[in-house]
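Researcher: We're teaching a course module on how sequence relates to structure. For the next exercise, students receive a sequence and then see the predicted structure as C-alpha cells, so they can try to spot secondary structure elements on their own. Here is the exercise chain.
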Amino acid sequence: MKRTVIVTAILAATGLLGASCNKDYDCVCRVNGTETNRYSVREKTKNAAEDECNKKQSSLGVTYQCAIE
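Model: And here is the predicted structure for the students to work with:
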C-alpha cells in the first residue's frame, strides 16, 4: 500500500512538472513607449516565447521594442 502511494505521488508530481513547462505568454510591442501590438505566444517555454517575440521587432521599416509580459 505504501509503495502504491509513493508511486502515485511520483507520477502526479511528474505530470504537474511536465505540464507547467509550456505556458501561454503575451508579447507586447511598443514604438516610442506606446503599445502598438499585443499577441499571444501559446504553449512555449519562456525562452522560446522570448525568441519568438524578439523576431517581431521590425516591420515595414518601423522598429518595435517587444517583450514578454
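Model: If you want an answer key for the exercise: Strands lie at 23-31, 34-44, 58-59, 62-63, 65-68. The mean pLDDT is 81.
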